[in-house]
Design brief:
With 218 residues, the chain is mainly beta. It is built from 1 helix and 15 strands. The protein is elongated and about 60 Å long.
Length: 218
């Protein structure tokens, strides 16, 4: 069964399904009469003018994109929130492909390169349930198609991750002589992936609350 978004989860609101522009909101509470959400805002601060039904999007625990049509039931003043209609389970559309939220995250990462598993300590650029981007020095002997060992710890719970990764691409070096190396998690246990997804949701909320920063979606 497709579940509703979790309290505190970031939402995307669209006037028309899968069409831009979209507006950001967040689930405040799940009520018997509907879902209580923050009034949606565009990135430039423009409020969403709801006229009739609109589409609400969110990510399920496994990263799948879910969406449903809804409309305003009531408007509350304290706090300033909307109550929107609650969908029936069969009304929620779930895309079969996974679309993992990717968030900026500066984490210490240990890579193990080549057959001899030469260790290289680097920093991450971003992370999602599907993979991690790391900064590597120019000339590091890694190429698309290579398989590396990758170890890091999720800071919120101190959860250690030790996983094999496929090198998807290596970017051009910047002025500081480092490149972005995009890694895809391989044969990861679902329990570990869930921990990473939970971290990305927490990190997403933190960045939006503290800095108003957007997240990226691969």
């Amino acid at each position: 069964m497709v579940s509703l978004p979790a309290t505190g989860q970031v939402l995307r609101i669209r006037p028309v399904r899968e069409a831009d522009p979209f507006y950001r909101s967040r689930l405040v509470d799940t009520r018997p009469d509907g879902l209580q959400i923050e009034p949606p805002l565009h990135t430039d601060g423009t409020p969403f003018a709801a006229v009739g039904p609109f589409w609400l999007e969110y990510h399920a625990n496994d990263g799948a994109l879910c969406m449903f049509s809804t409309q305003i039931v009531s408007v509350l003043d304290h706090p300033a929130t909307w109550v929107v209609s609650r969908p029936k389970p069969q009304e929620i559309i779930r895309q079969q492909r996974r679309e993992f939220v990717r968030v900026a995250a500066d984490l210490p990462v240990r890579l193990e390169i080549g057959q001899r598993r030469q260790a290289l300590n680097v920093r991450s650029k971003d992370i999602s349930g599907g993979g991690i981007g790391v900064w590597i020095p120019k000339g590091t002997p890694v190429h698309p198609g290579d398989v590396l060992g990758c170890k890091f710890t999720l800071p919120k719970e101190g959860f250690p991750v030790d996983v094999e990764c496929l090198v998807v691409r290596v970017g051009e070096p910047n002025e500081e002589g480092v490149c972005v190396c995009s890694l895809q998690f391989q044969e990861m246990r679902e329990a570990v992936r869930q921990k990473i997804i939970q971290f990305t949701f927490w990190r997403q909320r933190y960045l939006l609350e503290m800095f108003g920063r957007d997240v990226e979606i691969p």
